[in-house]
Write a structure and sequence with these properties.
alpha/beta, seven-stranded antiparallel sheet, elongated
Amino acid sequence: MILSCDKINAIKYAQVVVDMKRLIASMMLFVVSLSIFVPIRYVFKLDERVDMESKCYSIPNVQYIGYIESGLKYKFTPFCDVVFDKKYEKQLREKAKVFAEDLELLCGYYIQAAPGTHPGKGNIFLTLDCDRDDIGEEGYVIEVRKNYIKICGNSEKGVFWGTRTLLQWLNQGYILKEMTVVDYPEYRERSSMIDVARKYFSVEYIMNHIRELSYLKYNYLYLHLTDNEAFRIECESYPEIVSDKHYTKKEIKEIIEFAKRYNITVIPEIEMPGHMASVTKVYPEWQLEDKNGNYNHTRIDLTNPEVYEFVENLLNEFVPMFEGEYFHIGADEYIPIDEYSNYPKLEAYAKEKYGSKAKAIDAYYGFINFANGIVKKHGKTTRIWNDGLGPYGTIKVDTDIVLDVWLTNSKTYSASNLIKMGYTVGNSNTSKLYYVLGVDWASAKPDDIYENFDPYIFVNYEMLKDEPKNVGAKIQLWCDKPDSETEEELYTSLYAIYRALAQKNWGSERIVEYYGQFKKIMNMVGHAPGYTGVKTQIDIYKKIEYISRNYNKGYVEIDLGQIYKIDRVEAGAKIRRVEFSLNATNWSEQNEPARFVRIFADNITEHSDINVFGELLPDNLAFNKKVTVSSAYDEEIWPASHIVDGLRSTRWASVDTARSNGMEWVIVDLEDSYNIDAVCVYWETACPNTYIIELSDDGEVWTKITERKDTKAGLDYITVNGRGRYARITSLDFATPYGISIFELKVFGTN
């Protein structure tokens, strides 16, 4: 049944009323809960004025965003719907339905997805009328206008990624400036792998992971289904090898279908010919024997014809189950290259099959090609790990196999070697992209990924920039010690890692330069709609390990050792006030960047438990730098140099309002180009109502990075995002008849 617009709006209006009633009830419950809450510590939270400039943040950042300076804005309301282009109903219906469901989960309102020929007022329109060769299959364009939003792409995949960006924006606020976005990935594969063989993960965890991956524009999920520890997938051909705790084919199908709705392709990995103890414990006669008569339960015997029959049956059963273009057979860690001499039966088998010059390792290479032939019969491409390939055999592993490069050394081919030989590779850099449970050396770190990694940086820092045969990077979750972290703990442990790699794999310019800044954006973007796992918020401000503290009557003075932006102070006594200073001489109650902090509290002693939380700031780049100003009231008493002398007791003053041309400005030369993170202006009573901050590389062409309104005397601390050598503060009006006056200007950033 298709409802009319009036009926739909009536339903939505009724839902709004219900939602308001629920909100009021929740607020009443909250008030009651507050009345019975007894704090055990006192927290002194410091106000921070942050100017986001109505910017739209997303992970990954978009390739291009152009704001339209019209002053007009789009407002998402309970009456907005999703309209998909009727001409492309077959391609877009399912994606539009998923988008509408996610919008409903995000905002709590009923959202309809319906075909149409145009957006209609307030709606979001999806179409394949794009005609842009520069964005590829997965790219998209978003047009935000006052009365509608349009998302177009060359395929439904691209349109869907556009909906993920829009969801992230709406998670930050329902009002958007008019703008146009053009976005596309630099790498065609953006992947995650979960080792479900060593550690069984619930289907709910996998579904949550799929939602999160899609939200971040990953497009592949690898499931490592078998290993020595377990065979985790239902097998009709050999049911006896299946572990008690496993995924049924029905569950696997549900995972595949769910992932497909979210633009994620599920790729299975069935390990062979190594990592097969879960098979050989049932079929011990398939274990590989060495020259001393010892059997290895992790390796199957490649001289045994039954093994090849087993593998063929296994692949014929599982390869058609999965819709993706790849099938991963592992092929890693079969035998270390320098240990093949311990297996003379492999060499004898290879010589018989491949000729008198064949070596033992050719039995392994031949097996890979055998399995590849079966996979190809089903129209798919084989993937393997790269560690077994080196210049040792007489036969070559098929070059239509894609290699996941995780390990290179003197015995194995590097990524560049493999590409020269004709292979396509994926980046599984062990030192950057391995998160291994219970293993300290292999713990991927989000700050390292965000600041020091790119998908062209392979293991051992081999650089392959602009290489078309590099498909992209994959983050691996290995579960060597499965009980060292629970699913709930992993939600939190991996949260930032997935987000950092999402940015690097997409290939767009980082919206902020440093991970400390990126943490704020992660919190703003949040989780995917419908996510039911552990909700994670990154604590931007860390507990500061200060270097000393001194007790005076009524207060404790702390030396933090470096300059920090303070977020909060906690103490076991009631805090009355906090003061800040850069030099332990000039103190202020305004929350300014500081090295020294004074905490005044009731009954405070030298032994009181005190914690300070904050964010480390770089040095003030403007300190004692050259300053030029538009005018000076008295160059001897209030010179421009006072603005950057580090003292709050000195100031600069412009001419008074009557003599001013209407715009007074200050320019500081930082002497080099920097990424600017924050600007602090300490205004005297004579301040503007409105002023702007601009940056320039040459002192001639300026870029406005923020505009401040309703300015008050005192500290104005502004987080910004820009780059330049010169910083300019320009007043657009005056709050008093005395022009403008500044005690201190501080600029923070790095190059």
